[in-house]
Amino acid sequence: MARVLRAPWALVLPAALLVLWHLTVEYRWVAEGIIPSPAQVLRSWEVWIFGVTKGGLSPYSGTWLDNVLYSSKRVLQGFGLAALVAIPLGLMIGWNRLTGRLVDPTIQLLRPVPITAWLPFAIAVFGIYDASALFLIGLGAFYPIVVNTTHGVRDTNLLLLRAARMMGAGDGTVLAKVVFPSALPSIFTGMRLGIGVAWTAVIVAEMIAVKSGLGYVLWDAYYVGRMDICVATMVSVGALGFVSDRVIVYASRILLRWRTLEAGA
Amino acid sequence: MNGGQAALELRGVWKEFVKGDRRVEAVQGIDLDIPPHSFTAILGPSGCGKSTLLNMVAGFDAPTRGEVRANGAPVSSPSPKRAVVFQEPALFPWYSVYENVVFGPKTQGRSAQTYRPLAERIIEQVGLKGFASHYPAELSGGMKQRVGIARVLAMQPELLLMDEPFGSLDAQTRTLMQELLLAVWERHQQTVLFITHDIEEALLLADTVYVMTARPGRIKKRIAVELARPRTIEATTSPVFNALKREVLALIREESVRADAETALE
After folding, report:
1. Measured between alpha carbons, how far is A49 from A67 in angstroms, rounded to an integer?
2. Dmax over Cα atoms in chain B, in whole Å?
3. What is the pLDDT of residue A263?
4. Among A192, A88, A87, A77, which residue's Cα sits nearest to residue A138?
5. What is the CA radius of gyration of chain A?
6. Exposure string for B208-223, b = 16+ CB within 10 A, e = fewer
7. Long-range contacts of the stretch B111-117 (C-beta < 8 A, 24+)
8. Given an 8 Å threshold on Cβ–Cβ distance, is A159 in contact with B108?
């Protein structure tokens, strides 16, 4: 019964918002031309994706996929780089007291600096190139992953550590077979937060620091007054963020199967 | 010398904990000699420092003063020679029953050809045949503790340390587990040090029971349990058993009266 009712409920609010949006434009509840109608966005989006067959003048015609790929590639590279550094570092901070005392305070000190505030610094150092974007994305995704990994390591059950020790496990074995799997749920939480920040960072970076990708299109479209393209970009980024989050959740379900058993028991 | 070396020796073992600016003496001047292949129980009320004692024997914790020796060698860190069954099963939830059981031998670098048949046999002995590929989350409390026992047996340790392993189980499961442990011990004959606050459990399982006092923990009395082996749960109804039980009860009552009086004086 509950299962039957679940699916439609989720769609009620989005549908209502869509209708409200349509009516707002239709009945001119806001001044004309400020926001496009849903139908208009859809039409522009179609052109943006597929292009027009004959003589289209839109500079956006058929460029959607390219820009999606530019942005996705940056997110994947930046996020991958962040995970590659943050997971081992978080393991070491949580595991080794000296590393923790040495590195953790600095991370906590730098973390409150908003990723957007790094933008001028990134451009000054890396220029208007991909490196700037990667730096911002990587840095943004790095913090939640490193913090959650550290937290997960420190939360490892003392009894499990003792059990491993009494079975003859040395540091390496304890780290690989006890601490890492025990911290894995936290690591996934960090990665979910991290990928969210990565999409935020890529848009900001592309608006200013590079000349391609969805963030660039968004800012460009705003400048030339193409709010329809702006809205289509927003929805695109939202969808990409949603899909990448689902991918991480799906991976975690596979790797943390022992945990879903626990919940179902 | 009268032949064999003690499997476990404790010489004047003291343990103090510092809590804020207060010092708490957990155990005081413990001397113990545990012969090889014997089953020894340490019986005491909760908070008497018996788990502290076991942690020092396991090598998780160092004594403030005194020395712990296992087979003549001083204990300074945990070792697979001294396997521990904890109060909680403490299984790795990300590993199946089989993977949990072979963790010890695998970590010690034994070959799969050696440990696989051994692990399969032990899993069967503790009554978990058919559950080898299950995860801990799918097992009941009693079954989890069976895995806890199976994994230490698979290590083939010199010394088996058990810290109230059946404390969190219901009465019926506990009785079953005690019988299981007796049967398994008959077969493996490892030296066992068993910590408990349950008088019947101590008398049923052990050859020697040391009764501990509460705060600070000291050994009050050594009691030899001369019940024939192999034992079953029926042993608990014999006159010898009841006489021993009366003796221990009297000791413990005396001890709790003393502890209460001291607490009242503080």
Report:
1. 10
2. 63
3. 53
4. A77
5. 23
6. bbbbbbbbbbbbbeeb
7. B115/B154
8. no
User: Would you give the DSSP letter of residue B166?
Assistant: T
Tokens of A226: 């193409």
Q: What is the DSSP string of A82-111?
A: HHHHHHHHHHHHHH-HHHHHHHHHHHHHHT
Please list every residue in chain A whose beta carbon sits closer than 8 Å to the beta carbon of residue B137: 258-259, 261-262, 265
Q: What is the structure's pLDDT at B26?
A: 86
Q: Which of B86, B94, B149 to mutate to test the interface with A (most CBs of A within 10 A)?
A: B94
Q: How far apart are CA A133 and CA A74, in angstroms?
A: 7
Contact of A209 with A132, CB cutoff 8 Å = yes
- CATH node for A64-264: 1.10.3720.10
In angstroms, the CA B161 to CA A138 distance is 49
In this prediction, the residues of chain A whose per-residue pLDDT falls under 50 are 1, 264-265
Count CB atoms within 10 A of the CB of residue A241.
18
User: How far apart are alpha carbons B154 and B152 in whole angstroms?
Assistant: 5
Predicted complex ipTM? 0.90
> How many CA atoms are closer than 13 Å to the CA of B171, on its beta-carbon side?
1
Domains of chain B from N-terminus onward: 37-62+159-266 (3.40.50.300), 82-156 (no CATH)
Question: Do the Cβ atoms of A265 and B137 come within 8 Å?
Answer: yes
Amino acid at A26: E
User: Can you tell me the distance from the alpha carbon of A262 to that of B85, in angstroms, rounded to the nearest whole number?
Assistant: 22
User: Looking at residue A69, what is its pLDDT?
Assistant: 96
Measure CA of the first residue to CA of the last residue in chain B; give whole Å: 46
Tokens of A28: 């001119």
**Cα–Cα dist A127/A132, whole Å:** 6
Report helix, strand or coil for B58.
helix
Q: Which residues of B touch A171 (CB under 8 A)?
A: none
Q: What is the rounded CA–CA span in Å between residue B185 and residue B149? A: 11
Ranges in chain B, pLDDT < 50: 1-3
The pLDDT value given to residue A265:
41
